[in-house]
Structure formats: structure tokens, C-alpha cells
Amino acid sequence: MLSLETITVEKDFDVWVTKDLIPTEQCIQATKKAQSVLGMINRHFKSIDKEDFGVIYKTYVRPHLKYCVQAWAPQLQKDKTCLENVQRRATRMAKGFKKLPYESRP
Questions:
Q1: 88 or 98, which is more confident?
Q2: N or C: which end of the chain has fewer CB within 10 A?
Q3: Where are the beta strands (DSSP E) in 2-95?
Q4: 3 lies in a domain?
Q5: Domain assignment of residue 2, yes or no
């Protein structure tokens, strides 16, 4: 007789769903992908001014953080912090933002 295997995490339409429906795994995966894209941007651009940074961030990074957010809206503070760390790193990359405290960066 065959027994069914218990699955705890499943990827469906590029959204990670756990059996308890807490979006922590999705936040982790979205953060990894966005951090990877930031790394590629950092390697390819020596310095980025504010205008170029806005275009690059909105085009290449933010879609990874916002994809299907209606389905997995982060509710836990640790998930929000995880996603916010991407924004912290990204704003440090733009010329003129590096020395500003995070709260005062646009």
C-alpha cells in the first residue's frame, strides 16, 4: 500500500506556500533573489546617481519584492525586516545616500 508524503513547502506560480500559510519562506526567497540582483548591479556599475538608481531599482529589484504580494502579504515583523534589509542595502548603493541614516534616505 502506498502512503502519501507530507509536504511542508510548495512553490506555486513562483510563490512559496507553507502548510501553515505563513509567508516567511516567500519573504526569504524574494529577499535572496533581490539581493542577487543587487549584487549584479553593484558589480556592473561603479557609481550610481540618484536618478539612475531610482530607475534601476524600480526596474530590476522591486518586482522581486512585490511579485504576488497580495497572496503573501508579510504580517510578521521579521518578514518585514527581511524585505527592508534589501532596501537598506540598495539605498546605500546610490551616490549621496551612503552616509545618511536609513530613516532619512528617500
A1: 88
A2: N
A3: 9-12, 15-18
A4: no
A5: no
